[in-house]
Amino acid sequence: MTDTVVSFADMAYRLRGQRVIPDARCEHKHLTLDDNGEIVTCEDCKQQVNAYWALHRMALMWGNHAQQVRRVVAQVHEDQKATFHLRAAKVVERAWQRRKSVPICPHCKAGIFPEDGFGTSSINRAIELKRRSLRATE
Measured on CA atoms in the order 25, 28, 29, 32, is the torsion positive or negative? Predict the structure, then answer.
């Protein structure tokens, strides 16, 4: 049997086995916790729900939600890595659209104009990385 561990800040719940919803007609999604008598009631069907069942359901839902958030965050990070060059091009384009300034070369600090042929020539990536590492050690 595999266990699922769900974390809530400093607390962790280990879920074992599968519980069946007590009443198949109502999923008990809207619960009220009454401090008077410590009763859990479903707002939809007005039926009292077992507190353990409510806690178990909450842990399952939280675990599913946390897993979904992790997937979305991983996808956003992946998208950011894939579009880095596009974001850099947009920054340069915005800089060229300004009337009183132009972007500068990060190495020689000279201004770069669109007519300078920015991006029309290229160098092997490995050669440029080697040149940079040699300049950094000087």
Answer: positive
Question: Which stretch of DSSP H or E encloses residue 51?
Answer: helix 51-82
Number of neighbours of residue 89 by Cβ within 10 angstroms: 13
Statement: the pTM of the whole predicted model exceeds 0.85: no
Is residue 46 within 8 A of residue 2, CB to CB? The reply is no
Where exactly are the structural domains of the chain? 4-82, 84-137
Quick: pLDDT tens for 52-82. Answer: 888 888 888 888 888 999 999 999 988 888 7
Residue in 59, 48, 47 with CA at minimum distance from that of residue 13? 59
The secondary element (H helix, E strand) that includes residue 34 is strand 31-34
